Structures are given as C-alpha cells and as structure tokens.
Amino acid sequence: MSARRIGPGRPLPPGATPDGGGCNFSLFSRHATGVSLLLFEPADAAAPSVEIGLDPDLHRTGDLWHVYVAGVGPGIGYAYRVDGPCAPGRGLHFDPRRLVVDPRAPALHGAAAWDLTAARRGCDAPGPAPTPPARTARGVVVEDRFDWGGSRRPRHPWWRTVIYETHVRGATRHPSAGVAQPGTYAGLIEKIPYLRELGVTAVELLPVQAFDPNGIERRNPLTGARLQNYWGYDPIGFFAPHEEYAAGDAVEEFKTLVRALHAAGIELFLDVVFNHSAEGGADGPTLSMRGIDNPIYYLLDPADPGRYLDFTGCGNTLNCNHPVLREFILDCLRHWATAMQVDGFRFDLASVLGRDRFGNILANPPLLELIAEDPVLRDVKLIAEAWDAGGAYQVGSFPGRRWSEWNGCYRDDVRRFWRGERGLTGRFASRLAGSADLYQKGDRSPVNSVNFVTCHDGFTLNDLVSYARKHNEANGEDNRDGAAENFSDNCGVEGPSPDPQVEAMRARRIRNFIATLMLSRGVPMLLGGDEFRRTQGGNNNAYCHDDETSWYDWSLALRNADLVRFTRGMIRLRHALPMLSHEAFYAPAELGWFGESGAAPDWAHGDPVLGAHFHPPGATPRLCALFNAAERTAAFTLPEGPWWIVADTSAPAPGDIRLEAPSALPAGGGLTLAPGSLTILLSAASIPG
Asked: Are residues 211 and 114 located together in one domain of the fold?
C-alpha cells in the first residue's frame, strides 16, 4: 500500500465511513491508553499494509479514537491493536500484541480463520503476539452503491403476516435443493417461488450477523467429525452479514436476497443476538469487545470483576442498558433496517435487554423503549423471545405494546392438547382465540402473540410426533443438552416406522398442528421444512450440526407433496377469512364454544374434545372447527347450518383439504370425528376470493 495522507478524522459516526476520497475510522474505548489502526489491501492480504498509531492529542475525542486515511475505499480490510491495563482480575484484558475486530464493521472477512487456541491466551501470557495477523479476521470497508431497482417493502400488516423460520445455509445446502449456489443467500433466492406459492408473507432467518463457525472444538462422538457452530448464535460482527453464506460479496448478495423477496411480496425478518457475543466466559477467546473495553461491553460480577455474569448460558452477557451499548444496539438495528432494508427483528433471549448492570430485571428498560420508539424503526416489526437463561420468563408481560412475543405457552398447550392430555381444553381454547389471558390485560392484542408449535430450538414437527424423548448423542454432551420436556409423543414407536398405521397417525397429527396454527388468532410461525416432514433424527438441539442432520432434504417435499398441499391450503384459508387473523380479541358474540352435545364444554376435566363456532356479525361465511384429541370417536351436534366440510385431517389426500369442492353435510345432521382428528366446516360452498 502506498503512503496515504492521514488526518485527525472525526469521532462520529463510529465505525468505518468512506466518503469517496478516503475513509474515516472511529473506535470506542474508554479505558484504552493507545490504539493503532492496521489496514489490509486487499482485505484477504496475509499481512497489514500499514499500521497507524493514533496520537491521543490528535485522534481522540472523549472515548472515541478516530483517524481519516485518504485513498482508502471499499474492499480494504482493517483491524485494531488496543493498549491499556492488563488486569484480568479487574476485568481489563488489553493486549497490544493481538488484533481485534471492530464490532461495527459493515463486513467481515475471515471469521473462520481465527486461531482460537492463541486467542484464548490471556493478556498476561508471556510470548509474542497471540494472534498472528494471517490468522485474524478483519473488518472490510463498504460503500453503499447497491441498486435497489425501485423495490418497495411489502409492509404487510401484522394480522396478515405468516412467518416461515429458516436457516440460510440449511435451506439449500443439501444436494436435493437443486440450486446453483447451495447454502448461500443466492441459493435461497431460488426457493422464493416455492415460498410464494406456499403463501407465507415473511421469512425469518436464523442469525446472519457474522460469527465464527469454528467456535466449537468438540467432535461428534458417533462419527468423529468436528462439530460446527451451525445456528450462529455467537456473533462477532454485529453489523456484518455472515461471509460464508455468500457465493460472492456478502453485503451485495444479502441485499440481492432482500430485493428479490420484496419483489415477491415477502418480508425478511432477522433473528438478532444482542445478549452475548462469541467471546464466551473468562476462558474464552479475545476477538473484539473483550480487548476493546471489556468493562463497558459486558456485565461483570461486582464482587469479582474477573468473572462474567451469565444470563445467556453462553459465558457472558452484554451490558445492554449501558448508554454506550444502547447506542450500539440502536445503531445496529438502524443499519440493518435502512442500509439492508430488513423488515423485522426477532430478538434472541430478549429478557437480557431489560437487565441492568447488576443483572436485575428493570421495570421500564430504557433500551426496549428506545427501540420501540425510535423514529427510524417505527415501521419495523419487533419480536421478543421473552425469556433468558437466567430464569426470566416474560411471555405475556414483555414491556411495551409494540413488542410481539414468541408465545411459549401456545407451543406447550397446543402440544399437550393434541397428545391427548385431559384438562387442557380451556387453555387450548385460549390459545386458539389469541391468548387473551396473556395479552388482553396489558391493553395488547392477539398480534402481540407469535404462535408456533415448533421452531429451530427443539424438535421438528415430524420428530414431535415420532420421538418420545430427545436423541442428542451426536452433540457430544452425553445427551444432557436440549429441553428434556418436549410434550412429544411417538405414536407408539420411537423413530421411523414401517407400520402404515403409525405413519398415518403421525401424518394426521402433523395436519392437526398445522391446521390449529392457521386457525389461531395471533401471528403464525411455521418452522421451515415442517410442511414436508423434515427430520433431525430426534435431535432437539441441532445447533452444532452443519450436516444432513440439519440440511433440508427437498426430496421429502416430493414424497410428502400431499402435506405441502395441505399446508398451502390452510394458509390460503387463513388469508381468505380475515376473522381468523383480526387484530382484536373475539367478543362473546363472535365466537362460541361447545362440546359434543352442543352444550358448553367441560373446560377443566373432560376429554380433549372441543367445538368452536366462529360467527362475527356480518362476516361470511361462518366457520366451525371441531377438535378431537381423544383416543375415541367424538360425535358432535353442530350449530345450525348449512355446513360444508373444507378440511378433515382424518381423510386421505386429497380429501384432507377441499377448498375448491367442499362436501356438503346433510341438513340437521351431526358429525362424528375419528380419534385424534380435526374437521373444519364453512357455511358456504366456497371460500371468499
């Protein structure tokens, strides 16, 4: 790299900001005594082209270290050396021998190249630089020149939203995906026609914030293969799309995916992680924040600052309500929402965002209010995983009306009802009607509830009806990891079964779950691949498997095409009947509950058998849903008809869903449901539209 003109630079904005003539670099560090900027040209160069030491008198304003370097533009890599006290017992880990990554870097190169053994050496370890430059990730300067082609955000209202949760790599990595660039943002673009035909309105991606996939050093005890950080819930480049998910330039390719989804009328949500980082606990690697200003970025034990408070189960907890971290998180969300055009965010372990510097849950967390009231984020959808590993469980009480929540109560109650537990009828009805017991008291609405039966964390829908217990032996943790109670049922046989009766029962239960999800008020979320019975072989915590355990086998979509058709039909039915997705709770005159005789159900003690009559004034057609999770037949007396059967999960395909040609029910007759089945009736011979 030729000599560059160097100027004092500006403190704001933090990060790397090119202007056409050069680039301004600004890094926060309150406790540092010295900072050096290293440039790599190109970004993948083995060694830095230049190292620029920053003079505190010229290049520091408050806690921000800054410098302007002329001639630096897109594609050039950068990293920092940060000097200061090495006092691990006081929570200070400065080490000028190692390179650290700017957590605000808009792109990251080499996240898989860290020498983690060296990075775990403490600042007080003797010897040369623990991390040679050739084995260090670095930020990349990015200039926003992307042509959005006039694309517009779909801006679907919450009531219309149907979410499809998936993994960028896993969705298309399997050879059966048949895409040109498997396992990438570009590969996912090729699946957009499928998603559009399915009827979903939003894709929610597991983390794409840059992470180190090699952060797990265990091996699969069954195969000997090294395990990988597959899910990506260990970010290190919070502003940067993960490099290994791109066939080319990660930033450009991610934006191309967003543009293509928007053109298809599909929104993009990101699962974001602001509760911890990849640096782990006291024995974890120093990659970025720990070496930049550990006491600011992380919650430290007040009695022993050498220890981290851990409310995440990952070794550390970000100090989310420190003003510096609040600004960092807000800027990061604005970046993804504006520069990358993301439509919504799901916040992993969101209860952490409401903890103070001692780890206490705040009554009115300033960060959550800032996010909800930020004018830039005003139209962005916000979803909280309203719990954390420190014991907080805030489902139904997460602060702020703008926040929707993953409704874990919905998941558990619906699972328990459909496996035939007695006494669950009342709770099941509440979940079906929008969980008013959880949300109405806070002047919220059904769309504050994101309803799901399965998600990435746990069994797939196929495995929920095929395994009575978890099978996580391949994770190398002696099957101790993952939830022990899944409210699952194997239908009499553990794992795959050649018995057609067992398989028929499993297929029926899967249809029951999908139909229930689409009939429920709130926002439905479908786990990717559940619509064609994707399996993880009973593993309910496949976070470490970048292999066929987690990859989508698209041949199943052909083998189980009838289930794909059923799912598509149920989503279509939901879209056609706004009364199923209205943003208000049902009034007594809009929804009636009944048992087999037509009288009031036995809410507390009876069999899991229930009828629901949806009849909002002025709404046509009316809908009647009958649920029989018992091991016996259920003979229902129906509300006054006429009625046409549009779905029957006990019927073989294509009779399981008949939107085009429903069968008429004889006038005045009742209806008998097979054990473990669901039937949907309409008061008209066709659905609207």
From this structure: no
What are the tens digits of pLDDT across the range 434-443?
999 999 988 8
- Domain at 533, CATH number: 3.20.20.80
Whether omega before 241 lies within 30 degrees of 0, making that bond cis, reads: no
pLDDT, position 54: 98
- Whether residue 424 lies inside any domain: the answer is yes
Contact assessment for residue 657 and residue 565, using Cβ atoms and an 8 Å cutoff? yes
Q: Which residue type, as a one-letter code, is found at position 221?
A: P
Measured CA to CA, the distance from residue 242 to residue 108 in angstroms comes to 8
Per-residue confidence (pLDDT) for residue 1, from 0 to 100: 45
* pLDDT tens readout for residues 73-110: 999 999 999 999 999 999 999 999 999 999 999 999 99
How far is residue 462's CA from residue 506's CA, in Å, rounded to a whole number? 8
**pLDDT single digits (tens) 290-302:** 999 999 999 999 9
Residues 551, 413 within the same domain: yes
**Active-site residue list:** 348, 385
Contacts of 298 (CB under 8 A, 6+ apart): 91, 289, 290, 308, 316, 317, 318, 319
* Geometric angle at alpha carbon 273, from 268 and 275, rounded to 5°: 150
H/E stretch holding 202 reads strand 202-205
> What is the model's pLDDT at position 128?
80
Instruction: Indicate the pTM of the whole model.
Output: 0.98
Same domain, 456 and 423: yes
Query: What does DSSP assign to residue 364?
Result: S
Question: Pick from 580, 615, 637: which residue ends a domain?
Answer: 580
For residue 71, give the nearest of 37, 24, 26, 21 by alpha carbon. Answer: 21
Per-residue tokens: 506: 């499993």
pLDDT grade for 45, boundaries at 50, 70 and 90: very high
Q: What are 453's two structure tokens?
A: 């039966």
- Judged against a pLDDT cut of 70, whether residue 118 lies above it is answered with yes
> What pLDDT score was predicted for residue 2?
54
User: In angstroms, how far apart are the furthest CA atoms of the chain?
Assistant: 90
Looking at the structure, do residues 518 and 450 belong to the same domain, yes or no?
A: yes
Q: Are both 565 and 494 inside the same structural domain? A: yes
Q: Do 137 and 110 contact (CB within 8 A), yes or no?
A: yes
Assign 495 to helix, strand or coil: coil
Coil, helix or strand for 49?
Answer: coil
Q: Is residue 82 part of a domain?
A: yes
Report in angstroms the alpha-carbon separations of 111 from 114, 230, 360, 683: 7, 14, 33, 58
Show the domain range for 597: 591-682
If asked whether residues 529 and 604 sit together in one domain, one would say: no
User: Residue 621 is part of a domain; what is its CATH number?
Assistant: 2.60.40.1180
φ/ψ of residue 427, rounded to 5: -70, -40
pLDDT score for 171: 98
Q: What is the tally of structural domains in the chain?
A: 3
In whole angstroms, what is the distance from residue 672 CA to residue 661 CA?
21
> Rounded distance, CA 649 to CA 395, Å?
31
Residue 130: predicted pLDDT: 66
pLDDT of residue 628: 98
How far apart, in whole angstroms, are the C-alpha atoms of residue 204 and residue 637?
41
Note whether 565 and 653 are within 8 A (CB): yes
Closest CA to 114 of 239, 261, 246, 280: 280
| Residue 386 shares a structural domain with residue 534 | yes
Q: Per-residue pLDDT for 689 more than 80?
A: no
CATH number for the domain spanning 69: value is 2.60.40.10
Preceding peptide of 654 cis, ω within 30°: yes
Q: Say whether pLDDT at 605 is over 90.
A: no
pLDDT-derived band at 557 (thresholds 50, 70, 90) equals: very high
Claim to verify: residue 440 and residue 574 sit in the same structural domain: yes
